Amino acid sequence: MRRQGLWRRLDAAARYAVPFGTLVAGLVVLGLNFGLPGQAQLRPVYAMACVFFWSLYRPSALPAPAVMAGGVLLDLLGFSPVGLWALLLLLLHGLVLALRRRLVQRGFLFTWPVFSGFAAGAFVLAWGAQSLLGQGVLPLRPVLTQTGFAVLLYPALAALFIRMHRGPAAAELA
Amino acid sequence: MIRLSVPFRQAVSRLTFPVMLVLSFVIVLIGRADQGMSGALRTGLDDVLAPVYGVFAGPIAAAESGTGAIGHLFSLSAENARLRAENAKLLQWQAVAMALEAQNNALKATLNYTPPAAPAFSTGDVVADLGGVYDRSVLVDLPPGGSSVPLMGAVAMDGRGVAGRVVEAGSRSARVLLITDINSRIPVALGARGAPALMAGTNGPTPALLYWAPGQPPAEGAMVLTSAVGGAFPPGLPVGVVHYDAQNQPVVLPLADLDSLRLLRLFSYPDNLPVLTPIPHTKAKPAAIVHHRKK
């Protein structure tokens, strides 16, 4: 095995940690008291965009345990049943990995609708699970607003992630 | 680093995903069976995060309240004039309030009225807007050392009215479920007569009014106060004002400024309320706490 300098290994480790770091940091920052309308609904949208993008373009840096940890954090920050979003994010992760060969060649205009579809599906599943685990049927409107957020915000988030993908997260540059 | 054989590493990497999937599912089931676990985990996380959020709460509040001294200079004289007018008006109201207080005291003296004990309270910064899609809750950062009274079930009020109730309390933080949350049910008294009703959160900005007496619909503009029915709240705390929405349903316009809460006082009322209390005022019975939140 080639001997690597300490700095080089630190650099590689830091680059490896960028995807999970963005996931956790973003979830925590979105909890800050900005007073934005619908701020609480942004957190699942952000987590899904994060998991979708990094599973697609840098799957080695976002392994399944990291996805699960992010999901549990999302559940604990909000009041959703613990493990629910871990399950949903893992399903998204697995789905993206299974379709990766087809998705990774296509451009942004293809992945955007795909992400929107996955997001809508996950929000419906979350709604159904929370209605089942709670009492009675929860209102459907948050599902619609969240899907709207997901569709509208993915381009901005993807632009941010692409920069990170080429810059700080690029393990091949280490 | 531990060297592993290639087939073994491949097997591990292939197994990680299904194992994690099953593990998440198991966590959901455990959380469903033992609701104390998720509460304990959440409280632990809140205690870690509250100081971190507290560091950022100051700059955000500063940025929100304008650009500081220079920005305020321009509106100084206009603001002064407005405050003078408001002060004059408030002085008149002060005279009215003092007269009413004297009259009230005289009436209480004739009735041999015993005032209730003053509740202990602690004050905390609202540092984070947590909560999920179907939940409205905020995280309150408490000073280290904390309060001497148990905070679980404490009534949270901002400067004007009831904002919510503490559903989870750690040593450094407390989560307050707002009155707009879909799980929130608060017995209220309407108007001067104190007609009973139930205020139910809808996740929207205005909670709905349910179960009012059929013959007496709530009057537009009537004051909504907490009611001691069920023993969960002390009577007479200001909550809001009755309003009829576009569907002609009575709703409550909360007095508390729920969209931009900055400071909350958490009142721990003494434990001599009736046994029907959904949230115990002591932390001794965690099993009963989750009863309040519909799961």
Fold and architecture overview:
- The complex is a heterodimer of chains A (174) and B (295).
- Chain A has one domain.
- Chain A is built from seven helices and no strands.
- Chain A has helices at 6-29, 39-57, 64-77, 84-98, 100-105, 108-133, 141-166.
- Chain B has two domains: 69-111; 118-295, Rod shape-determining protein MreC, domain 2 (Thrombin, subunit H), CATH 2.40.10.350.
- Helices cover 35% and strands 23% of the residues of chain B.
- Chain B has five helices and twelve strands.
- Chain B has helices at 6-33, 35-64, 69-74, 76-111, 286-289, and strands at residues 120-128, 137-141, 155-157, 162-169, 173-178, 185-190, 195-200, 208-210, 223-226, 238-244, 250-254, 263-268.
- In chain B, helix 1 (6-33) packs across helix 2 (35-64).
What's this entry about, in short?
Chain A is mainly alpha-helical and 174 residues long.
Structural class of chain B: alpha+beta
Structural class of chain A: mainly alpha
Shape of chain A: globular
Strand residue content of chain B: 15-25%
What is the rounded distance between the termini of chain A? 17 Å
Q: How many domain regions of chain B?
A: 2
Q: At CATH's second level, what is the architecture of the largest domain in chain B?
A: Beta Barrel
Search tags:
heterodimer, A: 174 residues, mainly alpha, 7 helices, B: 295 residues, alpha+beta, Thrombin, subunit H, 2 domains, six-stranded antiparallel barrel, six-stranded antiparallel beta sheet, 5 helices, 35% helix, disordered C terminus
